[in-house]
Specification:
alpha+beta; 9-stranded mixed sheet; 3-stranded antiparallel sheet; 9 helices; 17 strands; binds adenosine-5'-diphosphate; binds magnesium ion
Length: about 350
């Protein structure tokens, strides 16, 4: 190495050291906003994090308009409006979400199905007008629930629904997709350390600036909001939970929640009350959490293994199962000893 190379190397090491030192000393930029019908919290380390945070919120609002059932002129709204009639053109983002959702439908044998729209509307859970529909009303909408009726034109970014009355609802995957978009935006802007929480869909980028992992609390499904059963430590991964405690109503002591079994038309009753998936993609984690929640422990574990992701499953008989890959990073914090921690593969 000649003298000028040594000087250049020293210069780079100095800059790298200063940058690292700056990052370690940094305080996070934290912001809470509202979007996709929920609270979005961002924790961002790095320079110009306020600008990047604002950019992420703008993107999420853009995706929301495109993907929500209710936004007039949005892709999904138009697609549903033309059900049984004609195909509509899609933006690349909604096309990608539908395509990936259909893949999860096939892999889960239909447990995950974005054509649940008519069921979501019929039950009205979370709208303030929730009611138990009659068996007849449920039987009437069941033929409309079938992901195989979603036709995607792969060359032209167009989609159609076969039957009139069919409705796509991306509630089980859109927040997860938005989380992946947020992480891409952080990266593109030179951020190396961030965490975004979109209504319980948490996605992390890198480590915390001190080099340690992010600590994500897992909600106790049978306690007040904010009370956790445990903490999982992750770096650069998504932690997404589907549970029967997020949106529900109770009639005669029975809980009716917002995740439906597309076969029965009733809220899934698989024996699981909370499913957390830990994966690299939050869209994948979101879809899988919903699918596993519907499938139940045995078939759900099968799907988890097939995708090579990790999970924390909580059953109605108050047992917590954690997959071997994250046992070292999961810490039980069940102070009331309400749950039994079962360690088996
Ligand atoms: P959350 O949206 O509360 O985080 P989920 O990711 O499990 O929870 O998504 C639940 C939402 O997904 C429901 O509100 C509904 O819009 C939609 N949904 C309900 N059942 C299914 C299903 N079987 N497959 C796909 N989406 C579903
Ligand atoms: Mg989901």
């Amino acid at each position: 190495m000649n003298k000028s190379m040594v000087i250049t190397l020293c210069f780079f090491l100095l800059i790298a050291g200063l940058t690292l030192g700056y990052q370690l000393r940094q305080r996070p930029y934290e912001i809470e906003s509202f979007g996709m019908g929920t609270i979005i919290s961002q924790t961002i380390f790095g320079s110009h994090s306020a600008t990047v945070g604002a950019q992420v919120i703008q993107q999420i609002k853009y995706l929301e308009n495109m993907m929500t059932i209710n936004a007039p002129g949005g892709d999904i709204n138009c697609l549903n409006g033309q059900a049984g009639r004609r195909s509509v053109s899609l933006h690349s983002e909604s096309y990608a979400v539908i395509r990936s959702a259909l893949r999860f439908s096939r892999m889960s044998g239909g447990a995950f199905d974005i054509t649940v729209g008519p069921l979501v509307r019929l039950w009205g859970i979370g709208t303030g007008k929730a009611k138990i529909p009659s068996d007849e009303a449920i039987k009437k909408v069941l033929p409309l629930i079938d992901y195989k009726d979603v036709c995607l034109d792969t060359r032209q970014y167009r989609a159609s629904l076969k039957k009139s009355g069919q409705m796509i609802d991306l509630g089980g995957i859109a927040k997860g997709y938005a989380g992946d978009v947020a992480i891409k935006t952080y990266k593109r802007n030179g951020i190396h350390s961030a965490c975004v929480n979109i209504g319980g869909n948490v996605v992390t980028l890198g480590n915390r600036p001190d080099g340690g992992p992010w600590r994500i609390g897992i909600q106790d499904p049978r306690a007040d909001n904010g009370k956790i059963v445990g903490v999982v430590k992750v770096s650069g991964q998504a932690v997404v939970t589907s549970g029967d405690y997020q949106r529900y109503f109770i009639v005669n002591g029975k809980r009716y929640h917002h995740i439906f079994n597309p076969r029965t038309g009733y809220p899934a009753n698989s024996g699981l009350i909370s499913v957390t998936i830990i994966a690299h993609s939050s869209a994948e984690a979101d879809a899988l959490a919903t699918a596993v929640f519907v499938l139940g422990y045995d078939n759900g574990m099968h799907l988890i293994k097939r995708y090579g992701v990790n999970a924390i499953l909580i059953t109605a008989d108050m047992k917590i199962y954690v997959t071997p890959g994250i046992r070292g990073s999961f810490h039980l914090e069940d102070t009331g000893e309400k749950y039994q921690y079962v360690k088996k593969s």
